[in-house]
Structures are given as structure tokens and as C-alpha cells.
Design a protein that fits this description.
Layout: H1 3-25, H2 29-49, H3 51-55, E1 61-68, E2 71-76, H4 79-105, H5 111-130, H6 134-152, H7 158-190, H8 208-220, H9 232-235, H10 241-250, H11 252-268, H12 270-274, H13 281-298, H14 303-324, H15 327-358, H16 369-372, H17 374-388, H18 394-408, H19 412-438, H20 454-472, H21 475-486
Antiparallel strand pairs: 1-2
Helix pairs in contact: 1-2, 1-5, 2-4, 4-5, 4-10, 4-15, 4-20, 5-6, 6-7, 6-11, 7-8, 10-15, 11-14, 11-15, 13-14, 13-19, 14-15, 14-19, 15-17, 15-18, 15-20, 15-21, 17-19, 17-20, 18-19, 18-20
Amino acid sequence: MSSSSLIIAALLIPLAGAVAIVVAGRLHDNLREAVTLVTAGALAWVVWSLLPEIQAGSRPAVSISEVVPGIDIAFRVEPLGMLFAALASTLWIVNSIYSIGYMRGNKEKNQTRFFTFFAIALSATMGIAFSANLFTLFLFYEVLTLSTYPLVSHKGDINTVRSARVYLGVLLATSIGLFLPAVIWTYIAAGSGDFTMGGILASKVEGPEVGLLLGLFVFGIGKAAVMPVHRWLPAAMVAPTPVSALLHAVAVVKAGVFAITKIIVYIFGVDYLFAEPSSSWLVYVAAFTIVAASLVALRQQNLKRLLAYSTIAQLSYVVMAAAILKPLAEIGAAVHMVAHAFGKITLFFAAGAIYVASKKTELHQLHGIGRRMPWTMTAFTIGALSMIGVPPTGGFVSKWYILAGAFQADNYVAVATIIASTVLNAAYFLPIIYLAWFADERPENDNQHGEAPLLAVFALTVTALLTIGFFLFNATVLDLERQLVSQ
């Protein structure tokens, strides 16, 4: 199969899978779930088939349609997009396995609708990853927002729908009100929106306009959850845990920080943006988001809300690393997308497993739970240590590169932020680990539960192993992203 055919297949396989899931769901639950797993596996095979070509330096592309003169729907695979697509497609397999165990164990309704929109969301994610220009990126960014709304509102009760509307409202308002004007401004100023190594805006936008345009992109891409555009993320915690995993690890928030990083590298250009003083504000905004969200997380008593604010902080590691505008930091931004994905999906899988097995959602209910759910809490511990940045977990690798880039740029605001947030991460994760393993179980919390369903435990074990494995085996990711900064 040619590279252009593989790109198109990556977009169409999840859509075809969505149709097949609807048909299979009318016949038998097992068939529906088999179709989901086969679709996820087929997508991963197609995406990973592109990797050797990208590693060899090729940049396969395909143009679908010219919407108006100079603006087309087109796709091109480059190192950053390859990384994002490979990450999302691989984790879809694991998330699908977990979802089957969770949805059955929790006796959730409308499971066919759930798996259908999950597949559509993955198609949108592939479109974002492989977008060749700003118009294509914006188009699939919006499709991802719309396709995940039914997932966030899955439970259907009044509170859930209200929170889902916050999710949808914030993301659509920021994208239409800020992101779209930034896209239009770029096309007018540069005459193009194509992602080009070195950027397309040099001498086209200058002075304070650079900082303003950067602001429209950063705050318009609300999925990156840079404060104050972050309220949608805690609101979305009403969704089932597999959806939270999709939001935090597989697609949605990763689409946000991926888009910002891609725009910095391919639209502004790292060297050009570094030379413009009006762009320096981004490091400070990202640093504020990291520290503020970590402080809010420290005060949370609900486990999923704590993880939500932790995600807000961890996302801005990627934004801050990209904003440092040094090669090591750019590598660190990409590596942290992977490390955070493995660690955070593990944490959400564990939180969901705890809920399915015991219906516990609050931190004070976790006394001694490690003795009842040793597999789940071992995985949680590994994920938490990765968020803190403790070896041997993937989080240590990404923080190492971000810190190295900060020192390379003599950016001591970034250095201080990473140190402070690491302390804060430890302050809210280590007490949970202590409660789970070393505190005595309270009589009122004893409902004789054990582990969650086997499929859920299997999935969280796999992601925990990936979190450790990424510490040891990260050469492919590093080599891929070195191509990005060496061009």
C-alpha cells in the first residue's frame, strides 16, 4: 500500500469502524466489541506502517480537495504528527479493552453509541495529526470537539448535560472566536497556511502583532487548557472513565498541545519566534498555569477532579517547553506528550477500576484499598510517580529534556516552575499512595470488594508497564523528534 493510501486509510478506517459498530450493536454486544477491537488494531497497523518512511526522512502527503483557491484539505506526515498519530492509535487499542470491562462492569447504557462516537473521535484525531495546513487542522479540531460531546454527556442526567454544555461551549467559543480569526489572519498575512519547516510568518507579521497572533492561537486552542481557558476540563469529569482517558491521554488534550507545538514550529518558526520579544509572555502564562493548577489539585478531595487539575498542569509543561524555543526543550515537549499519555491514562484507568469495584470516588475512602486492589493501586502508584518525574518512569525522561532546554535558554522561570510543580505533584500524589498502602481500612469503607473486571485490570497493567518501558526504550521517539529540531 502506498503512503498516500495509508494516510487516507488512517482517516477512513475509524469511520468505517463506526458504521460497523452501529450495525454490529444491533446484532450482539460481543460482535460490536470485536468490531471495535479489530478497527483499533487496523488503525494502529496502518499508522505504524508509515513510521519507517518518516524515519528515513520522507514526508508523504496527499491533497483531498481545494475548498476555495489557496485553501485546501490536505495531509502530510512529519515527525511530530507521526508521534501523535502513533500514540493515539496505540492507546485506542488499550482503551477499547478497558472500555469493554468498564462499561460491562458498570452496566452502562447506550454502549453502542459510546463505541461509535469513540471511533469517530479517533478519525478526527488522525486528521489533526496529519494535517498539512491550518485549515485542515481547524476543520478536524472542530470535528473532534463535536464528536466527543456525546461521550461527555453519556450519562444523560441534568448535571451531566449541564457540564457537557460547558465543555462544548468553551471549546467552540474559543475556537470560533479566537482560533479561526488567527487562521484567517495567517492566511491573509502569509498568503498560505501550510505547515512549513522554519515557519511562514517571518517578515509578514512583526512586533507586537506576533505576540497578539500567538495569543489568539494559544487561547483559541482551548483543548490545551491554558488558564483561563481550562474550565471545560474539570466539567468534563462527569463522563465515564474511558472518556476521561480519551480526553486526558489519547486524543483531546493531546490534540491541543500538539496543535500549539506544531504552530510554533511550522507557522511561526522557532528561530523567528525566539527573536520576537512580544512572544516571551507564553512561558510565564504556562508557568502560572502549571503552578496554579497544581495548587488547586492539592485541595481536591474527589479523585477524578484531582486528576483533571493535574492534567491542566501537566499540559502546560508541553506548552512551556515549546515556548522555551530551544532544541532540547522542543524534544522535551514531544516526549512529555508520550510520557504524560502513558502515566495519565494509567491513573484514570485506576480511578475507574476503583469506582467499578467499590463505588469509591473520594480520597478519604481509599484507606487501605491497596490490599483489596493490589494490581490497580500498583498501576496507580507507577502513574503517580511518572507525574512527579521519578525514575524509572517516562515522566523523568520528559522532565529531564525540558529542564535541559530551560538551562540551554537560561530560562530560570521555567527551571523554578518545574522544581516547584514537582514538589506540588509529590504533595498531592504521595498521600494517596500512603493511604492506599499503609493506612488501615476504615470500617465504613469495607464493602468486601476486590479487583475490577479482568479486562480493566489487564488494560491498566499494560499502560503501567508502558510508563516504565518508556523510561528504558525511548530511542525511537527521540530519534523521530531530533529530525524535527535538526531541519
